[in-house]
């Protein structure tokens, strides 16, 4: 386990010759904000830092505290507004970045939903916890991975890190993937008044799904680095249970450990603990699909990726495949109805009906819709506030 001093010393060695582009989804508060601030200090502000979130005033305060390099070109510090509970908003934000950036070096995802009593549903029909802890993160990676690949093509760093709950080896349960049944089982008048099984499930499932999500993208893009890391108990405004100063890490200290994990490892999948240590890692081969036998018993074994045991990893080749297929189906249906979603019960009911149909039928309807309309058709637009920089 690296000490805080070792982590800081290692981070100080990060001094790229290029101006790094770093996107912090959830960078307006908590660990994400602390990581963005530490990254800005580490680069002396000589970076293109993009904070993504909902709180413009908090972002403005954070950006104002970043060091501003003198006599340097290419740097910029900005805020992009995005609602992580809305996949339409996330897609629109990502489309905006793709339209003006040539590459991204670091994609940092920290936004979370941590309520143990609330188990709501978004306007798009998603579990509220999963929308932030999983679906939005999946969408960020899917929509921005080409820009990360462009950074790797330039010979630069290209890394993704998801800060959530790595290392516990939580298995991916394939029943009730979207937690609709769990939410229906919650007694209405008790919502928000006591511990909710559905809310706890949303938190736990989000952790397991992140393992599967990053394993999937690491296999699809073996030249990039994908890390799932556990921040530990941190003294943040969003902490579920405050354990006191003795048991909770300071946000600044946590940020140093998280950056230590971000800067380490050029490619592959990494499961890391709260000190940035590697719990397990695996580099996928470019022909990984040919190496995976879906019918073999090992493909169904949790904690094994492409035949390789991974400590602290909860997925199996079979459950990851099922999760990704379900996720693509859900996001595809939401995309189809994006222009109609405004809390309309009838629209959400129609979406659920399509999700409940066969995979083939749902996929066919999604393909038909995409053939006739722009996949980004939506009433949701990401608003943007650009703060400083000579770019």
UniProtKB/TrEMBL annotation:
Q: Does the keyword Methyltransferase apply?
A: no
Residues covered by region (Disordered): 372-391
Compositional bias (Polar residues) at which positions?
376-391
Key words of the record: Oxidoreductase
The record, for InterPro entries, names:
NAD(P)-bd_dom_sf (IPR036291), SDR_fam (IPR002347), Sec_Metab_Biosynth_Oxidored (IPR052228)
- What GO molecular function terms would the record report? oxidoreductase activity
Q: Which Gene3D superfamilies does the entry mention?
A: NAD(P)-binding Rossmann-like Domain
The keyword Methyltransferase is annotated on this UniProt entry: no
**Which superkingdom?**
Eukaryota
**Alphabetized PANTHER family for the sequence:** ALCOHOL DEHYDROGENASE-LIKE C-TERMINAL DOMAIN-CONTAINING PROTEIN, YALI0E05731P
What is the protein's name according to its record?
Answer: NAD(P)-binding protein
Tell me the organism.
Mycena rosella
């Amino acid at each position: 386990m690296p000490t805080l001093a070792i982590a800081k010393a290692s981070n100080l060695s990060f001094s790229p010759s290029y101006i790094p582009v770093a996107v912090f989804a959830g960078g307006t508060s908590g660990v994400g904000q602390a990581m963005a601030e530490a990254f800005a200090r580490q680069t002396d502000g000589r970076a293109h830092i993009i904070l993504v979130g909902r709180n413009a005033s908090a972002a403005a305060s954070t950006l104002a505290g970043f060091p501003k390099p003198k006599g340097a070109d290419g740097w910029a510090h900005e805020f992009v507004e995005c609602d992580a509970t809305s996949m339409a908003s996330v897609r629109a934000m990502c489309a905006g970045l793709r339209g003006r950036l040539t590459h991204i070096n670091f994609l940092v995802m920290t936004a979370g939903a941590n309520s143990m009593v609330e188990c709501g549903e978004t306007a798009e029909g998603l579990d509220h916890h999963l929308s932030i802890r999983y679906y939005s993160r999946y969408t960020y990676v899917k929509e921005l991975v080409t820009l990360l690949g462009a950074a790797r093509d330039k010979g630069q760093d290209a890394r993704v890190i998801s800060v959530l709950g790595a290392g516990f080896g939580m298995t991916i349960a394939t029943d009730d993937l979207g937690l609709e049944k769990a939410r229906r089982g919650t007694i209405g008048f008790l919502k928000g008044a006591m511990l909710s099984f559905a809310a706890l499930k949303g938190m736990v499932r989000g952790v397991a799904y992140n393992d599967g999500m990053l394993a999937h993208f690491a296999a699809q893009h073996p030249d990039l680095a994908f890390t799932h890391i556990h921040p530990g108990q941190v003294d943040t405004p969003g902490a579920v249970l405050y354990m006191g100063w003795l048991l909770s890490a300071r946000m600044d200290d946590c940020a140093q450990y998280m950056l230590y994990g971000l800067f380490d490892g050029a490619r592959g999948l990494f499961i890391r603990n709260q000190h940035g240590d590697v719990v397990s890692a695996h580099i996928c081969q470019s022909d990984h699909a040919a190496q995976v036998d879906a019918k073999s018993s090992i493909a169904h074994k949790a904690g094994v990726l492409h035949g390789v045991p991974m400590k602290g990893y909860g997925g199996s080749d079979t459950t990851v495949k099922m999760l990704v297929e379900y996720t693509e189906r859900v996001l595809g249906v939401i995309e189809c109805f994006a222009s109609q979603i405004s809390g309309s019960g009838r629209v959400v009911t129609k979406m659920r009906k399509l999700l409940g149909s066969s995979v083939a039928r749902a996929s066919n309807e999604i393909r038909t819709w995409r053939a006739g309309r722009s996949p980004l058709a939506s009433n949701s637009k990401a608003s943007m506030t650009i703060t400083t920089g000579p770019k």
